[in-house]
Amino acid sequence: MITVEKLTKRYGETTVVDEVSFTVERGSITVIVGTSGSGKSTLLRMINRLIEPSSGRVLLDGRDTRSEPAHLLRRRIGYVIQGHGLFPHRTVAENIATVPRLLGWQEARIEARVRELLTVFSLDPAVYAQALPHQLSGGQQQRVGVARALAAEPVVLLMDEPFGALDPIIRAKAQDDLLDIQGRFGTTVVLVTHDMDEAFRLGDRVAVMSGGKLLQYDRPAELLVHPADPFVSRMTGLAERAMRLLSLITAGEAALPGAAEGPAVAPTATLREVLSELVWSGADAARVVDADGTVRGRLTVAAILARGAP
Amino acid sequence: MDPLGVVLVAAGAAALLFLPFVVFKSNRIVPGNPCTLAQVLPAWGAFGCAAALALAGGGALWATNARVRLLLALLGVVAVGAAAAAAGDALTPPGDRIVRIAPGGAFWVLIVCLGLLATDATTRMRPKPAVRVLFLALSLAVVGLALARGTFDHLSVMREYAVNATRFAHEARRHLELAFGSLAAAVVIALPLGVLCHRKPRLKPGILGTLNVIQTIPAIALFGILMAPLGALAAAVPLAERLGIRGIGAAPAVVALFLYSLLPIVANTAAGLKRVSRAAVEAAHGMGMTDLQVLAGVELPLALPVILTGIRVVLVQNIGMVTVAALIGGGGLGAFVFQGIGQTAIDLVLLGAIPIVTLAFAAALVLDALVEVLDVRETRQP
Predict the structure, then answer these.
(1) CA B162, CA B38: separation in Å to the nearest integer?
(2) CB-closest option in B287, B298, B378 to A74
(3) Residue ranges of domains in chain B
(4) pLDDT tens-digit map of B64-120
(5) Residue A280 CA neighbour count, 13 Å, CB half
(6) pTM to 2 decimals?
(7) Taking CA B151 as the corner, what is the angle to CA B149 and CA B155, rounded to the nearest 5 degrees?
(8) Domain B165-380 -> CATH class
(9) Rounded CA gap, A87 and A89, in Å?
(10) Mutate which of A87, A95, A141, A161 to disrupt the B interface (most B C-beta within 10 Å)?
């Protein structure tokens, strides 16, 4: 659990982050969104003390982060940045082993961990362990960047626009991977982005920042239904809010009992995707079907539209 | 036809026609009699040499395959070398130690033309760094072997060597000590200065500006400037004098070379650190590396090719500049050069100059290869 208390950063007269407080639950994903210069990156870097706060404090599982030297704190916190920052002169395996080496793990344990992570990130150790970063594709480099951050089993993973340099298709895959990995390791994630779609897709909670202030910290649906500030509405996009709301609900959650004709959709599909499918196929209802073929229920256009209103 | 080949063949042919191949001198100082290739070699020898040169020339003009060009150029070099050695043997009366058979203008022009031809062919083959170093080692080994078995013993430069053998070994060692010693001292001081320039950009103009001013002082002037303070130091501190620190000799030479060495290494260290990926450095800090770990583990390894380029500049510069140190009693191969100039004995000048040029060339080639190896592996940005 991360508790941020009245965290403030001033450079001379300018206040970059202004008395921000929020709490991140263990095992959840918090996304900080804001425009450039909103202070979102500064806020993130104050959590692992790459930037020292002017005032306020951060508690990690109840312990003040200033109670130990900054470099020791950072070894317990995973950190991923845009453009991954892999060491170009070290192999993929050496890159991933960075923090375990700093922590003095035994070689056998390091090697096992590297193999495990490469496998989890669908990179064959036999092919990629000894490769140099420049020999990988952009998506692979990004995955190695995340694997490196997770190497020493950190309780918290900080990500600063981690997918910003990827093209849309690889980015969507990377986002899915992150949700998968986060579910598997139960890591607490704080992620900074300026992309609202990404925030809605990944965030259990979303923090909207502007001008150094935290305007709202809430579940994604609440940002749409009860925006605390006109700026929050502008960030979420008035024209798209109904669709965004639908994208937060899965077919499995919304399915009504009973069978139906019409196209089959997976329970994990969002209502936005189901609606799109119905509009495209011209059907009135869809069947929600499990991977093994069990029918879980049905979804009508009317039922979907009803969920898109506040 | 190959344009470079045309120029080289024209130069070589003109030299062969109009310049002496060797010069026969009845002693070390007199001007001597020019001799052509045909005058000094038996008919079959002159014919063989001419044939080899014709082949090399034909290769230079028409061959498109770089390997063929290289092989023919090397054939030419061997022929010219063998002809000179044979001329020395033929013209020297048995047992004589006073006559000098000096390679003439045609010899030097041919060697330069064939050398350029071989270098050009090697460049066209784009050999890997290791191959280039191997090639250098092989060439040096062949020349060394020929020297060791006395092939060129009757030529004037080797005559000078025979007289000065012990001193030559001593001065050569001194030359290397001065060049590498001042380089080592400069690396120890310049690396931290370069890091400082990178970390504190406000200090950079001051540091680089000062070193720049030092760089503009001519070597001779700098030796002169250093004489007074070092002499005073030796007079005031007996320990300094016992360590060999005096106004003249090796001390001012080492200090001057050290000062000249600073700028290239400091500037390249700062430039090398600057081009290190900022993302990699930020990630390193973010993962909990200490400042020193980031510097030693990420920044310096990634800046190394650029730093080595600076060291290469300094090493080649030092090997050349140590020559001047002989003027203030610093020793080194320059001693032969200046002694030769004083005695108008050009062979003695060459005894100093040829090894200096060879050393500088070899140092440049080896360090270039090293830079290339590291650059490929370490700094290609992902």
Answers:
(1) 28
(2) B287
(3) 3-156, 165-380
(4) 898 999 999 999 999 999 999 888 888 888 877 788 888 888 999 999 999 999 999
(5) 8
(6) 0.81
(7) 130
(8) mainly alpha
(9) 6
(10) A87
Helix (H, G, I), strand (E, B) or coil at A250: strand
Does A50 sit within 8 Å of B279, measured CB to CB? Answer: no
- Name the residue of chain B whose CA is nearest to A95's CA: B284
The residue among B26 and A162 whose pLDDT is bigger is A162
Strands (E), A142-293: 156-160, 188-193, 205-210, 213-218, 264-265, 285-289
Residue A242's region, left for phi above 0, alpha for psi from -120 to 50, else beta, is alpha
- Could you tell me if A209 and A193 are in contact, meaning their C-beta atoms sit under 8 angstroms apart? no
Amino acid at B3: P
Distances (CA, A) of A133 to A143, A250, B297: 11, 37, 16
Over residues A52-62, mean pLDDT: 92
DSSP letters, B120-171, are HHHHHT---HHHHHHHHHHHHHHHHHHHHTTTTTTBHHHHHHHHHHHHHHHH
Partners of A141 on chain B (C-beta within 8 Å) are: 382
CB A82 within 8 A of CB A161: yes
pLDDT digits (tens, 9 = 90+) for B278-322: 899 999 999 999 999 999 999 999 999 999 999 999 999 999 999
d(CA B146, CA B158): 12
Could you say which of A89, A99, A133 has the minimum Cβ distance to residue B287? Answer: A99
A192: closest CA among A39, A40, A53, A17?
Answer: A40
Give the percent of chain B with pLDDT over 90. Answer: 47
Supply B151's token pair.
């092939």
Strand partners of residue A209: A34, A214
B276–chain A nearest CA distance, Å: 10
The secondary structure of B353-371 as a DSSP string is HHHHHHHHHHHHHHHHHHH
Q: Give the pLDDT confidence of B218-277 residue by residue, as tens digits.
A: 888 888 888 888 888 888 888 777 777 777 778 888 888 899 999 999 999 999 999 898
ipTM: 0.86
Contact with chain B for residue A20, Cβ under 8 A: no
